[in-house]
Known about the structure:
The protein is mainly alpha-helical. The protein has helices at 21-31, 33-53, 75-88, 91-102, 111-145, 152-190; strands at residues 9-12, 15-18, 67-68, 71-72. Helix 1 (21-31) packs antiparallel against helix 5 and helix 2 packs antiparallel against helix 3 (75-88). It starts with 8 loop residues before the first strand and ends with a helix.
Amino acid sequence: MALVPSLGYIPLGVTRATIIHIPVIIGSVMLGPKKGAFLGALFGLTSLLANTFSPTVTSFVFSPFYSIGDAHGNGWSLVICFLPRILTGIVPFYVFRGIRALMKGHENAETLPLIAAGLAGSLINTILVMNMIFLFFRDSYAGARGVTAEALYGVILGVIGVNGVPEAIVAAILTLAVGKALLRFTRKKEN
């Protein structure tokens, strides 16, 4: 998805929306937290590469190798690039397993857990990335976005609402659809 232009990272002017987290979430649910973390690390790597070699105005928050004007990426760029994405490959597994255990014996014991895993994986990525940007790059990011540092958290909440919530809804729907099909397939294969 990262290699197909405008598929994995959808350009939105000064930033990008992403759908690469969806295979990471599904991989987490189906393969477990270790393989999910590996997929999340690959997601982080593709983000680093995209922001280094095809940058936007705010790419410095994801790449220590990119700077624009007075805004420079640094070690925190790598933390932002990798930590939320790795957690995107871990958290959905535990959300899915935990809710499924609570619903054991219920008729649709996989529907709600898959939806919740999709929502959790997507939101952990968006909320952590945006809050870490605020924490580590507040002034530089505000300058790149053309807002004051005092107004920045409102902008960040806007990004979470405008980009993050629809991404989470899409992730929940696709995690449910693909997850149900994969779970059905693995059950048939086991029998």
